[in-house]
C-alpha cells in the first residue's frame, strides 16, 4: 500500500516509511529527556562511512570481477564504523543508544542475512579480525 517502501510503521492511521523518517518521527512523537538526534557533525561523519551503500553495492553486485573491489570498500566502511564505536563507547553517540544506532542496526541486519547468503560474507570475515 505504500509503494513497496520498507520499513513501514503505522501509528494512529498514519504511515511512516523509510528508516530515517521513522526514526525522526519517533524522536518527535515520543520525546525523552534528551533527544535521540545526534549532533549534525556526528551524523555526517557516520553517513560518510558509507556503510549501507557499501553493503548494498557488494550484496547486489552480479559482476564477479567487481566483487573484490566492492568487498574491500565494504570492509573499509565497516572498519570506520568499528573505530567510531571503539572511541565513542557502547554506542555510536556515546553511553546511550540514539538514532544513529537505530539507523545502522537494520543495515547490519541486511549484512548478516542477505550479504551472508548471497556473498558468503559476514562481520566475522573482516581481515585481521577487525570488526
Automatic annotation (TrEMBL):
Domain of life: Eukaryota
SUPFAM superfamilies in alphabetical order: GST C-terminal domain-like
InterPro entries (UniProt xref): Glutathione-S-Trfase_C_sf (IPR036282)
Protein name: Chloride intracellular channel protein 1
Native source species: Durusdinium trenchii
Amino acid at each position: 500500500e505504500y509503494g513497496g517502501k520498507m520499513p513501514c510503521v503505522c501509528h494512529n492511521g498514519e504511515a511512516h516509511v523509510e528508516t530515517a523518517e521513522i526514526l525522526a518521527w519517533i524522536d518527535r512523537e515520543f520525546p525523552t529527556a534528551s533527544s535521540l538526534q545526534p549532533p549534525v557533525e556526528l551524523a555526517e561523519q557516520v553517513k560518510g562511512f558509507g556503510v549501507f551503500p557499501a553493503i548494498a553495492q557488494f550484496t547486489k553486485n552480479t559482476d564477479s570481477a567487481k566483487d573484490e573491489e566492492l568487498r574491500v570498500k565494504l570492509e573499509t566502511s565497516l572498519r570506520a564504523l568499528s573505530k567510531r564505536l571503539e572511541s565513542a563507547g557502547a554506542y555510536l553517540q556515546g553511553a546511550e543508544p540514539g538514532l544513529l544506532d537505530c539507523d545502522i542496526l537494520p543495515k547490519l541486519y541486511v549484512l548478516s542475512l542477505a550479504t551472508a547468503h548471497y556473498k558468503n560474507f559476514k562481520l566475522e570475515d573482516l581481515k585481521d579480525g577487525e570488526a
